[in-house]
Amino acid sequence: MNLRDLSYLVSLAEHKHFGRAAQASFVSQPTLSTQIKKLEDELGVALVERTPRKVLLTEAGREIVARAREVLTEIDQIKAIARRTVDPESGTLRLGIFPTLGPYLLPHVVPQARTRFPRLELLLVEEKTETLLKQLREGRLDAAILALPIHDDQLHAEFLFEEPFLLAVPEHHELARRKTLKLDDLSDQSLLLLEDGHCLRDQALEVCELSGASEKSGFRATSLETLRQMVAANVGVTLLPTLAVKPPVARSENIHLVQFRGHAPSRRIAMFWRKSSALAPFLKKFATVFHELPRGLLDPHTLPDAVPHPETSAASKPPRRRVSAMPPR
């Protein structure tokens, strides 16, 4: 038994197909198949059940794959310790982030990370929270940026920032006339929400519960951008995180953003990594990049597209002075 064979087995477990597993392992399919068979012969048990369409793991195979992942993760940790000893800021960092945050946060962070850690190779993985947690626990990620709370005694949570929500409404919606809102103002509203699996859906449902609002039936969006387009099309209202309405995100036409009074509903973001990780000292240092976001970035009061509603702003505008055109000389 060797580490290479264990990696082949783990790859086969992930892809459920000899050809795709071989391609992911950069070997030929016959080579991978032969090594798996040798491993089975050595252990004296069948690890996979071969069917015409896909590969299934036997009960013993599933247990051995789980142990193999732990072994390979520990090997990665040994290599990481050696690499960090030579150069603490070199190597590869596999960082996970969820879809309703990644596209809006990373443009503000990645350039600073490259400047701060020029020898670091940053590999970003964008998935839903449950998938990221699974990959983090299995050692396929070094760290993940997730929304609190996450209950796992094996993970360390490094708080990064709190991000307020705003209410996005169609341009001529009755709430667009408001400069600010309180939660109770949503009591008779039906909010557009994301589909199951997005942590933003859970956070929005908490706001609904606190305010007395409900979910708009018959529609669940697959992305934050779909929600934005539905609001622009006058389908309904929704909650948007502050980062999702700040540059470089383009201003959304036909959408009015309304801030909440007092302590706005928000989400708390943290970086998670395994407490046993050899990279823990470096990850704590890397997290400081997220603590140094540009001033005002998380402040909903500095919105570039927080344009006053026409009906509320007309009275406050000073009268225009008539300027006579100068006659040509």
Explain how this protein is built:
- There is one protein chain.
- With 329 residues, this protein is α/β, with parallel strands linked by helices.
- The protein starts with a helix and ends in a 16-residue tail after the last helix.
- α1 packs across α2 (18-25), α1 crosses α4 and α2 (18-25) crosses α3.
- The chain has helices at 3-15, 18-25, 29-43, 59-86, 102-116, 129-137, 199-211, 224-232, 280-286, 288-291, 310-313, and strands at 48-50, 55-57, 91-97, 120-126, 143-147, 155-170, 180-181, 190-191, 214-215, 238-241, 255-260, 266-274.
- The longest helix is centred in the N-terminal third of the chain and has 28 residues, at 59-86.
- Strands 3, 4, 5, 6, 7, 10, 11 and 12 form an eight-stranded mixed β-sheet that branches. A two-stranded antiparallel sheet has the order 1-2. Strands 8-9 form a two-stranded parallel sheet.
- The chain is 38% helix and 20% strand.
- The chain has two domains: 1-86, Winged helix-like DNA-binding domain superfamily/Winged helix DNA-binding domain (Arc Repressor Mutant, subunit A), CATH 1.10.10.10; 88-308, D-Maltodextrin-Binding Protein, domain 2 (3-Layer(aba) Sandwich).
The tally of structural domains comes to 2
Number of strands: 12
Give the rounded overall mean pLDDT: 86
CATH class type of the largest domain: Alpha Beta
Work out the helicity level.
25-40%
H and E string: HHHEEHEHEHEEEEHEHEEEHHH
